[in-house]
Amino acid sequence: MFRLLETGSRRLAAVTAALGAACALIMSLSLLLGVFYRYVLNASLTWTDEVALLAFSWTIFLFASVLVRGFAHVRVTLVLGMLPATLRFMLERLNLLLVAAFGALMLWAGWNFAGFTAQQVSPALRYPLWLQGSAIPVSGALILFHATVLLLSPREHLAKEAQA
Fold first, then answer.
1. Overall pTM > 0.85
2. CB of 29 within 8 A of CB of 52?
């Protein structure tokens, strides 16, 4: 069962990273296009900033979940390295539990926020603002999933992931 979850988590992280990279590319191209039109052609585009902001939101939140999967979230490894293996293992589990709780909070609060913005649209492009706000609950669900898979992992696997 764990191997199936582990494989699914790795593949989901790869797809998420590709989507995050695509969003980052869209954001960069949108900003470059806006700067080119404004300073080279002396004609401002009204929509490039909105596209960049939408892509930025998705980029940040998608890569946040990939970092959890890669065990690259913030933790103090200096202290962990000085602890005995059993205590280090327990603290890593506690850390993952807190990350999972944060993902669940993001899912819940982001869902409520997306619902709050359901009837609102962006000024220039008129896209529904829930599209931007939905990056938060999607990221929360991904973070919760990846942290749960890491929590369920055997001790040896967790130690290997944490050291990588």
1. yes
2. no
